[in-house]
Specification:
This protein has helices at about 15-25, 80-90, 100-105, and strands spanning about 5-10, 30-35, 40, 50-55, 70-75, 95-100, 115-120, 125-130. It is α+β, with helices and mostly antiparallel strands. The chain starts with a strand and ends in a 6-residue tail after the last strand.
């Protein structure tokens, strides 16, 4: 696999509203969405690249698994997340949950080809691989 860029950064915090306010009002980030306990901001690196703030454990585990208890979550963009997940498994990496396809989560056909998977690194931290376009052909 080859990492293309950092495509997502998430943080889980007990200071949810203050953190959202800081990213929006102090850092001047463009807010993509806000839900109770979950907000997102656009990153300039890509159309679907986001910084997300999670306020508690009640967020859908397909978006932020329980294993990501607190701190920072980083996603690496790859061309083919299914193949990359297989490489992780072959290397003996601990996989967390299933491969998630955004269109299955949102029901929106425009999300086709956008998917991710979570894994635990040898440092104990949870990381993400993410594909943000149509799967490669062949």
């Amino acid at each position: 696999m080859r990492v293309l860029r950092v495509s997502f950064v998430g943080t889980r915090t007990t200071a949810f509203q203050a953190t959202v306010d800081m990213f929006r009002d102090v850092l001047g980030m463009d807010q993509a969405f806000v839900n109770p306990g979950w907000a997102g901001f656009h990153l300039p690196s890509g159309e679907r690249d986001l910084l997300e703030v999670f306020g508690g454990p009640d967020v859908d585990p397909r978006v932020a698994p329980e294993e990501f208890g607190r701190g920072v979550l980083v996603a690496f963009a790859v061309e083919d997340v299914a193949a990359a997940r297989e490489e992780l498994a072959a290397a003996g990496t601990e996989l967390i949950g299933d491969l998630v396809w955004a269109a299955d989560l949102t029901g929106d056909a425009t999300d086709a080809g956008w998917g991710w998977c979570f894994f635990r690194g040898p440092d104990g931290n949870v990381y993400v691989l993410q594909q943000d376009g149509l799967a490669p052909s062949g």
